[in-house]
Amino acid sequence: MKRIIIAVGMLFFAVSHLWSASRGPIVANPINLNYKFGLTEGDGKPWREAADPVIEMWGDDYYLFASKSSGYWRSHNLADWEYIAAPSIETINEYAPTVCAIDGYLYYMASDVNRIFRTATPADGTSWSEVECRFKIGQHDPCLWQDDDKRVYLYWGCHDKDPICGVEVDVANGFSPVGTPVVLIDHNIDSYGWEVPGENNDETFHNGWNEGPAMIKHDGKYYLQYAAPGTQFRTYGDGIYVGDSPLGPFQAMEGNPFSFKPGGFIGGAGHGHTFRDRYGNLWHVATMKISERHMFERRLALFPVEFDGKSQTMRAYTEWIDYPFVIPQQRFSPSRKSFLCGYRQLASKAVAKASSSTSGHDASYGADDIVETWWAAESGRKGEWLELDLGRQCRIEAVQPNFADDGVPLMRPAASPMVYAYHIEGSDDGITWTTFVDRSGNTEDDMPHELIMLDKPVKARYVRIVNDRDIEGRFSLFDLRLFGSDGKKVLDRKVKHTVLRNPDDRRRITVRWDAVPHAERYIVRWGIVGSGVLNNSAEVASDTELEAGWYNRDSDYDFEVRAY
Disulfide: which of 202, 311, 347, 353 matches 482 by Cβ 3.0-4.6 Å? Predict the structure, then answer.
């Protein structure tokens, strides 16, 4: 199976940890939240979800809302999130929420439910109250948005045939429509390959799902985003249409999709929301997919965003975004100074063994760097462990245990949270062990994707995570990820390549190159001819070609291939 990672033209290994750590907290996607378990069983198996996110700044804090979460989260720095249960929002467990700050209140609305709630104190999840809603038009995936002139608009759409629509609404008159709804974005799989459903955009016989509209304004232009082709695919991404007014007409941005990540440890970058932080920096919060135990088994991610004023294009930086990166607490430009920490993922080629394993979930899956597979012990008893042999002594700067909840008999609302207690230890010989992460006394509502930055680097060849408390279900990990350096020289070499466009389907292009000795992966970069920027890229491991169908039928592209 080919492994592909979308990127955005940045050199991963070029930035030092010292540069990053001095300017803000360090995180790694998926965002580490206490993701809630589903309300129903997925094929009889437990599963978590959060999706369709939106972040709104209120006062000096950020508020993150997502589908099916029984509440929302608050943060001061976009890195550390506090969960707030919201029983006063009666529709809190519906899909695709939208929030909008209007005249001293934060308003909330969910998909397919024409009910609106508001509060002046969102730090209190019990303070929301329902307001009149005269908007009676059926709406999937709503987006409330206020322009600079204080006029408010509602956008919606989530369908494989129906378009994205919008209309102005009168807040003082119960959000009643002002005028007639306008069709804004229709399906166009014939022209835009990324809208075609499938893991490699190959289900050309039917439309994908165009959904999740969101609006942002920049330099007088209106950027209406939408997601395609479906939340269950790693090719799930967000595109942009640009217009001169809130209701268009809009023109598709040629460099679409602007937010796209079909590979890496966890893929997907669709149905998101673009917002400004307190420093004026742009960020995109989006949906990532697992979709193994249920189609809606999903997580959230955060990507830096930048506008190109000359070409009126917008791009989210998704390359290596499931590796540690800094969230600068100042104004920054991701195209000028990388926010990545420059670590390697040391566990991706590790030899794994375990105290025990369940059929279909052997130890190797705990170190394959793919979230759709996971290691599971035979039990959740104290003492179960997963051990990785890195092959040589490495300098470990950070660890990220990604817990898989295998066999956990929880559905929301659960009587008690899922809490993991464990420790992580290192060794040079696999015999004598020293603990360097101690979570044995943990009582926190689970942190299933916590990135743990070490106070000082640890040198070890062997790393082991040990369960320290009996749990329901089985002790399990999508992956135990280790970040740092292994002392090897970094290869970065431009590679000659050939490009073949499918004459029967111009949306599909194959890029081929010769193998480079000692290369572990290749980066294929591309951009629209004449733009001067190779603004998208894909990483390929264990192969010397990339065949993909996410290109525009009528666009021409420049390419570059580099070996690493």
Answer: 347
pLDDT(397) > 50: yes
- φ/ψ of 81, rounded to 5, equals -115, 130
**What would you report as the CA-atom Rg of the chain, rounded to the nearest whole angstrom?**
23
Q: How far apart are CA 260 and CA 239, in angstroms?
A: 9
What the block records as the tokens of 448 is 């299933």
What domains appear along the chain, each with residue ranges and CATH number? 3-326 (2.115.10.20), 344-485 (2.60.120.260), 493-563 (2.60.40.10)
Q: How far is CA 134 from CA 9, 89, 169, 172, 181, in A?
A: 47, 18, 10, 10, 15
Tell me the per-residue pLDDT of 229-244, one tens digit each, with 9 for 90 and over: 999 999 999 999 999 9
Per-residue CA distances from 317 to 133, 219, 258, 282, 287 (Å): 38, 21, 9, 11, 15
Q: Give the integer Cα–Cα distance in Å for 294 and 440.
A: 31
Sheet arrangement for strand 61-65: 54-58, 61-65, 71-75, 82-85
Q: Phi/psi class of residue 64: alpha, beta or left (left: φ > 0; alpha: ψ in -120 to 50)? A: beta
Nearest to 363 by CA among 393, 392, 404, 322: 404
Q: Which runs of consecutive H residues, i.e. helices, occur in 225-381?
A: none
Interacting residues of 515 by C-beta distance below 8 A, sequence separation 6+: 544
In angstroms, rounded to a whole number, what is the distance separating the alpha carbons of residues 465 and 480? 8
Q: CA–CA distance from 157 to each of 111, 338, 434, 443 (Å)?
A: 10, 35, 54, 41
Report the pLDDT value the prediction gives residue 262, as an integer from 0 to 100: 84
More confident residue, 534 or 498: 498
* 329-370 per-position pLDDT tens digit: 999 999 888 899 989 999 988 999 999 999 999 999 999 999
Q: Does pTM surpass 0.85?
A: yes
Question: Can you tell me the distance from the alpha carbon of 152 to that of 141, in angstroms, rounded to the nearest whole number?
Answer: 17
Would you put residue 198 in left (φ > 0), alpha (ψ -120 to 50) or beta?
left
Cβ–Cβ under 8 Å, residues 448 and 399: no
